[in-house]
C-alpha cells in the first residue's frame, strides 16, 4: 500500500463532544495504526495471515479490553473510548478490529461479567497484555442465526466435564490460547466454558479460502471428548442470554468500527477525486462524483451522531440490545455502500491494493453478516417495535 | 539528572490557516492543535531516554492557557514526570524565553531542551534566549545528545558533515530531527497522566518586545505546466519571468 495519507473528517464537529482523554486515546490509536499496521496490512491481507507481531502494540494502545477494570489489567475506560479504538482499528482493516473485538468483548467481557474471582485473576491480566489470546465459540456449522439450536454439549465426570461438538467461523481460533465455548449441559442449559489450548481432544484447524477478512485468522474449534476441569465453567450466568450479551458488546464495537472503514473510504475517494484529471479537470468537479461524496459524508455524519449517543447510553448502562442492533446494522450497511461508491470513484485504481477501498469493501461483506446478519438485526428492531417476533 | 523540556502547541498541519483583526492575529476557530513535533518527537523523547538510562526526572514547561492542557497531558502520557504551565498568552519569543528562564533559574536543571523551532511561527529563538537569561551554554540544532557524568556530547549537522560538540552541564539545547524516534502514548501512559502533577504558575512581569504588524498567506499553489521539450525558449522565459528563479 502507498503511504497512509488518511485524514479524519469531522463534519459535525463531533470532537467537541469528546473529552481530551478520548481524543488522546483515539489519536494515539490512529498514530500507532499508521506507523505499525498500515505499512504491512496489504501484504498480510494478500498472504491471508494475521500479523502476530503487532499483538503487543495492539495491547499497549488499549486494543484488548480497555473498559475492563484496572484491577484485572484493563484500563478502566468508558465505552466511548472503546468505540474510538475500534473505529481507528477498522479504519485500517476490519480484520484487525475483529481480533481486538473478539478478545475484548467475546473473551474478556464474559470472563469479567460471568466468571468468578479466580478466573478473572487468572485470565484477564494476561488477555489485557496480549500475552494470552482468546476466541469465542458460539456459531456452529448448522447453527448461525439460530445459536440456541447448538449441538455442542458436555457431560459430567467427577471434577471434569467431557466436551463434544464443533464450532465454526471462529476469529482468532488458530492461534488462540483459550476459547470461551458455549455448550449445553446435561440439562440442555447453555453454559460458558473456558477451554485451554493443549487440552486433549481440542483442535483448532484454520479455515482457508476467504475472500474477506484475509488479515484475520479464522478457524474451527473441534471438541472430541475434551476433559475440562469443572472450575472452568463460567458460574455467574447461563442460558442464551449470556453469549448474546457478549455479542451486544461486540456489536457495539462494530458500530464504531464500521464508521472507521467508511471514513477511510471517503477520505481516499475525496483525495483521489481531486487529483484524478479527466476531460481536463479533476473528477471532483463533476456533479455525479460530488453527489457520491456528499452522500458519503452525510451518511458518515449521521452514523457518528447515532453511535456517539449509543456510547453515552452504554456508559450509563442503558443501551438496549435493540438499539445496538440498529446501530450495527445501519453503520455496517452504510460503510459497505460508502466502500462500493468509493471504489467506483477510484475507477480501475479502486481494485488495486495501492488503495484500501476494495479491501474494506470485501471485509465489510463479512461484517454485514457476522455478529448477527443484516436481516436478523432488522427483525430484532421489528420485534422491538411490534412486540412480535418474526424469526421463524 | 533534572531535565526541563519546553513544550508548545501548534496547529495540526492539515489546519486551514486564517487571520483576524486586520490580519494581525491567527484565527484559532476550528483549529486542532498538536504538540510541536520538534518538542515532542526529539526533545521530550530523548530526555526520557536519558532518565531511563541515568535516572532523574523530566519536567515539561508550557506558556499558555488551560487550552494547552491537552497538549501537556499528552507529554505526560508519553512519560514526563510532571508539568508546569505559566498561565499567560505566549506573545513573542522573548516573553516566552523570559517566563521559562525565570521559572528555571532556581530549579537547578542539568539540561533545558527545546525543539529547534515551532512549526507555526518558526522563530527558533527561544532556546538561545533562555540560555542567555539563565547564563548557561547553548547548543542549537542538535541531532544527537549523550551524557556521561557532567559532560554532554552533542552532534550537529553542518554543511556537508557533522560537528561534534562537548560541553559541561548544565546546558540549554535545541533538538533537531534525528535525536530520537517518535513515541506514541500507550494506554498505561495515558492512565498515569491523569494523576501526574500539572502546576499552574502566574506569569513573570515582562512586556512584549515585538508586535506583529501583519500576516500574509503565501500565494496559492499553481498547477504543473508542461513545456514541449523542443521549446526551451519558453521554459527559460517562464523560469525567468514567471517563477523568477533565474
Provide structural commentary.
The complex is a heterodimer of chains A (392) and B (246). Chain A has helices at 20-47, 55-60, 79-92, 94-114, 117-129, 241-275, 287-315, 321-345, 357-367, 374-386, and strands spanning 134-137, 153-157, 160-171, 178-184, 190-196, 202-203, 218-229, 277-278, 281-282. With 392 residues, chain A is of the alpha+beta class. Chain A has a four-stranded antiparallel beta sheet, with helices on one face. Chain A has a three-stranded mixed beta sheet with strand order 1-4-5, with helices on one face. Chain A is globular, with a radius of gyration of 21 Å. In chain A, 52% of the residues are buried. Chain B has a single domain, classed as Rossmann fold (3-Layer(aba) Sandwich), CATH 3.40.50. A nine-stranded mixed beta sheet of chain B has the order 11-10-9-12-8-1-6-7-13, sandwiched between helices. In chain B, strands 2-5 form a two-stranded antiparallel sheet. Chain B starts with a strand and ends in a 5-residue tail after the last helix. Chain A binds chain B through residues 7, 13, 15, 20-21, 23-25, 28, 31-32, 35, 60-62, 66, 70, 75-77, and chain B through 14, 30, 32, 69-70, 73-74, 77, 182, 184-188, 190-191, 194.
